Amino acid sequence: MQMKWLNGFRIMTTSGCLLATLTLGCVLFSMQTFGQNISASTDKLKDSEDQTTDLSSRLASLRSIQEATVSLAPSSWLFYGRLDENKLRKLGCSYSTRDPSMIAHLQNILKKNEVKATINKESQFDARNGIFLILADGTIIKILFGQQFSGLNTVQGTFNHSSTNVNLSVAAIDSLPQDLVNWAVETGAPSAKNFETRLNCLRTIHQ
């Protein structure tokens, strides 16, 4: 009788241990899976925050910019139709530099004017101010802005990074266009598609 009782106790103990082991394993697995889900969600949230709120700091911290170009179309110039990137490059005044100090100066301008992504959808605007950054890997960052309007304290624009295919609507403080003009003058004479345009650039921007 005592032996039967001991055998029964051993069976119950073994079964209990096995059940406890399985239960503990399930708990640990669930905790691990839950932790991974939380981690993934945190990463997605971080990426989202980086894209929407940290754009200015990211641009200011870039160390791989090989060349910077600013293309400008003064607000006093009249055009047929809305300006886009191609028309701005063709008809506007372009200023390019590979000087690290001037590139850093441009980055500071972008940071000072708080270039940030917005939740607004891309709006129709005249691309009067273009910033084009060529990175060491050959990719290009393009930032286009419209002109400054009285009564508004921001200028609207778009941001594109060719390698990541990131397209964002952005905004900046309304002092950005004038700061870009001042930067352009410091770089020297403009490049333009024809002599007349270049002359108009000198008359308007370098006055």
Short description:
The protein is an alpha+beta fold. Helices cover 49% and strands 21% of the residues. Strands 2-1-4-5-6-7-3 form a seven-stranded antiparallel beta sheet, with helices on both faces.
| Chain-averaged pLDDT | 74
SSE series: HHEHEHEEEEEHH
Looking at the structure, what is the overall shape?
A: globular
The beta-strand count equals: 7
Write structural notes for this entry.
The protein has helices at 2-53, 55-61, 85-91, 100-112, 176-187, 195-204; strands at residues 65-72, 93-97, 116-117, 129-135, 140-145, 154-161, 166-173. With 207 residues, it is α+β, with helices and mostly antiparallel strands. It has 2 domains: 1-50; 55-204, no CATH class. Residues 1-52 have low confidence and may be disordered.
Please give the structural blueprint.
Blueprint: H1 2-53, H2 55-61, E1 65-72, H3 85-91, E2 93-97, H4 100-112, E3 116-117, E4 129-135, E5 140-145, E6 154-161, E7 166-173, H5 176-187, H6 195-204
Antiparallel strand pairs: 1-2, 1-4, 3-7, 4-5, 5-6, 6-7
Helix pairs in contact: 2-4, 4-5
Characteristics of this structure?
207 residues, alpha+beta, seven-stranded antiparallel beta sheet, 6 helices, 7 strands, 21% strand, globular
